[in-house]
Write a structure and sequence with these properties.
alpha+beta; globular; 4 helices; three-stranded antiparallel β-sheet; eight-stranded mixed β-sheet; 13 strands; single chain
């Protein structure tokens, strides 16, 4: 399957889930127009409390729809936007991308992957056991975070369900994703 956007979502308020919409407008250097996390500096409330001057490396949250499938099979009620993501994808291994990989979405938008979403207690507030369900262990025993990736907007544009995604990898060496 060629990588595609399967859904887009945004919320003007700091809500855990984001309602799915027909399209979102990505703004270079800022994030998603109308979303609570839009901005040059951090907008996630815990990060604002720690240091409001830090750059916003979490402008866009992406989750692979295949994770939703896996979680639904395990009995969780999750779907596009329900875990706070702005863009749900299909056919792309988001977690396997290196830091700095760029995703060309639709005709114009480009986002650059900055790191992993660090699963938080809000997942369990949404549905008991969800935090543990998106964590795992790598073969070496290290913690595996599977709740999606975070990105910044490099080039603005509109994204909607059905848009193609093209992946541009950075020059080697490829750096693994870490929580941001």
């Amino acid at each position: 399957m060629n990588p595609i956007v399967s859904a887009v979502a945004l919320s003007a308020a700091h809500t855990f889930t984001k309602p799915v919409t027909t399209s979102i407008r990505l703004l270079a250097g800022l994030g998603i127009e109308g979303d609570a996390h839009l901005g040059v500096t951090v907008k996630h409330r815990s990060r604002v409390r720690a240091d409001p001057t830090k750059p916003n490396l979490r402008q866009v949250h992406l989750i692979h729809g295949e994770l939703h499938d896996e979680l639904q099979a395990a009995g969780f009620n999750v779907d596009a936007g329900s875990m706070g993501e702005n863009i749900t994808t299909r056919g792309i291994d988001l977690l396997g991308l290196p830091r700095g990989a760029r995703l060309r979405i639709g005709a114009d938008a480009i986002v650059e992957i900055t790191g992993l979403r660090n699963p938080c207690s809000q997942l369990d507030k949404y549905q008991k056991g969800l935090t543990a369900a998106v964590l795992g262990r790598h073969p070496d025993g290290s913690l595996m975070r599977r709740a999606g990736v975070m990105a910044i907007v490099v080039a603005g544009g509109t994204a909607r369900a059905g848009d193609a995604i093209r992946v541009d990898l950075p020059a080697p060496p490829h750096l693994p994703l870490e929580p941001v």
